[in-house]
């Protein structure tokens, strides 16, 4: 954050900016003006988050793709869980062009499969080389403590990194943590879709709850699952992490965010041969890994008409992996 503030002031005229505060830039009356000055930072102002007092406090955890952004893309490609299935990722990427297409990843890059390090390296490289076109989200398998302890099971990446890179803590500090820190929590296309890893909850009342999420909101987005009922309950199948949310919850969140549907992954078992639809088709679950025995695929969406969706099966995916 400190580097961001320094970089901001090296790029813009600060003569008319409001006074600095110890923990950020006070822009309560001129937030939109400041955001417009930050055009050097991709997709400002949607990447710039302000707290309720108007302080610039963090890079937003929400990607917002407005119509003007969508016009640049030939298609929108959406990958679900990969879980170390590098062959499926390579096959899928062979059918897209990140220089012309928007490429989304919904999280869970490692564990279960044997090539999590390679998947992470590839996604990280895509983010760096095509930063305006690649949108990588955080999954529950990217949920770690600051010191590198996983908050989930199985945690195969730890052993895999030791084997391939020599030391987990060095790999975590120098490679994986910077990668995770650069992941967002959600992508929203106003009027169309919300893309997340896991799900939603009643704690989400507007887009700001995803821009600068409290830890309980983040946990719900990473860990939650839909069920065919109403209400929301602790997700005991996942040890109480996140919630199970009913059709009324997804409907309300969609209305509050101004979208028609939620596209998520997190449950590859439900999407073994193609997208799994729930909540009257409002919630779509996808999978891009074969580690659960299914056929990996990705979505290809027409950015000018979100009702035009192709399900593209990837070829030459891995034949097995930890279940």
In the CATH hierarchy, what is the architecture of the largest domain at level 2? 4-Layer Sandwich
Largest beta sheet: strand ordering? 5-9-10-14-16-15
Strand content: 15-25%
Helix content class:
25-40%
Q: What's the N-to-C terminus distance?
A: 39 Å
Give me the count of strands: 18
Structural class: alpha/beta
**Mean pLDDT across residues:** 85
Largest sheet: 6 strands, mixed
CATH class call of the largest domain = Alpha Beta
Number of helices: 10
What is the domain total for the residues? 2
What does this molecule look like?
The protein is of the alpha/beta class. It is 28% helix and 20% strand. It folds into 2 domains: 2-59, no CATH class; 67-313, Purple Acid Phosphatase, chain A, domain 2. The chain has 10 helices and 18 strands. The longest helix is centred in the middle third of the chain and has 14 residues, at 116-129.
Name some characteristics of this structure.
323 residues; alpha/beta; Purple Acid Phosphatase, chain A, domain 2; 2 domains; six-stranded mixed sheet; five-stranded mixed sheet; 10 helices; globular; disordered N terminus; disordered C terminus
Q: TL;DR?
A:
This protein has a six-stranded mixed sheet, with helices on one face.
Can you lay out the helices and strands and say which pair or pack?
Blueprint: H1 2-11, E1 20-21, E2 24-25, H2 31-37, E3 48-50, E4 56-59, E5 62-64, H3 67-70, E6 76-79, H4 86-93, E7 102-105, H5 116-129, E8 134-136, H6 156-165, H7 168-181, E9 186-189, E10 193-195, H8 208-211, H9 215-223, E11 225-226, E12 232-234, E13 243-245, H10 247-257, E14 261-264, E15 276-278, E16 283-285, E17 297-302, E18 305-313
Parallel strand pairs: 5-9, 6-7, 7-8, 10-14, 11-13, 14-16
Antiparallel strand pairs: 1-2, 3-4, 6-17, 9-10, 12-13, 15-16, 17-18
């Amino acid at each position: 954050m400190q580097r961001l503030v320094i970089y901001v002031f090296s790029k813009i005229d600060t003569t008319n900016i409001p006074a600095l505060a110890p923990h950020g830039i006070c822009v309560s009356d001129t937030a939109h003006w400041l955001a417009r000055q930050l055009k050097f930072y991709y997709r400002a102002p949607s990447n710039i988050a302000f707290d309720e007092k108007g302080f610039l406090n963090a890079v937003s955890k929400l990607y917002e793709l407005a119509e003007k952004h969508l016009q640049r893309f030939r298609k929108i490609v959406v990958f679900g869980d990969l879980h170390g299935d590098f062959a499926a990722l390579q096959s899928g990427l062979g059918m897209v062009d990140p220089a012309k297409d928007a490429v989304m990843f919904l999280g869970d890059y490692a564990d279960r499969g044997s090539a999590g390090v390679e998947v992470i390296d590839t996604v990280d490289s895509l983010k760096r080389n095509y930063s305006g076109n690649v949108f990588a989200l955080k999954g529950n398998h990217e949920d770690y403590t600051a010191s590198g302890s996983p908050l989930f099971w199985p945690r195969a990446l730890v052993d895999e990194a030791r084997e391939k890179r020599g030391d987990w803590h060095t790999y975590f500090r120098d490679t994986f943590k910077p990668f995770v820190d650069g992941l967002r929590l959600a992508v929203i296309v106003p009027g169309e879709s919300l893309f997340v890893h896991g799900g939603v909850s009643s704690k989400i009342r507007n887009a700001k709850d995803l821009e600068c999420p409290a830890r309980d909101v983040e946990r719900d987005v990473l860990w939650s699952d839909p069920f065919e009922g109403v209400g929301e309950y602790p997700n005991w199948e996942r040890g109480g992490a996140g919630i199970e949310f009913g059709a009324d919850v997804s409907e309300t969140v969609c209305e509050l965010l101004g979208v028609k549907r939620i596209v998520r992954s997190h449950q590859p078992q439900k999407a073994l041969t193609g997208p799994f639809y729930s909540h009257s088709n409002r919630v779509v679950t996808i999978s891009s890994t074969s580690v659960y025995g299914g056929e990996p695929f990705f979505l290809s969406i027409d950015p000018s008409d979100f009702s035009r969706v192709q399900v593209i099966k990837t070829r030459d995916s891995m034949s097995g992996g930890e279940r």
